[in-house]
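Trying the structure run again after the queue cleared.
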Amino acid sequence: MISVYYFGSIALVLIGLYGVLVKKNVLKMLIGLSIMETGVNLLLISIGYIYGRSAPILSEGIGPNQAVDPIPQALVLTAIVIGVATTAMALSVAIILYQRYGTLNVEEIRRLRG
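Done. C-alpha cells:
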C-alpha cells in the first residue's frame, strides 16, 4: 500500500530539485538542497515504517514482532547530522563568496571570475 508519506517525500524532493536547478542565488540553492534532503529522509523513514507496530524501545508488552526495524531510523538520524554539517559548510562557503565577489548570484560570480 502506497502511503501518503511517499507522495509527500517525492514532492519535497521535486521542490528541492527545482530550487537547485532553477534558482541563481546560492542561498536559495542551499535551501533547495536542504528541502531535498528532508524529502529523502522522510522517504527512508516511511519505507521503514510498518502500520500497527511501535518504536523499538524496551518496555513491557512490546516484543520483537511488534516493533519496527530500527535501522532506517538510525540511518536517517545519521543523515540528519551529516546534512547539518554539510549545510553549515556550504553556508560558510556562501559567506566567503559574498565577501570576495559582493554577490551571491551564480551568473554574476561566473562573469566576475573572468
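The mean pLDDT is 88. Worth checking whether this holds up in the mutant runs.
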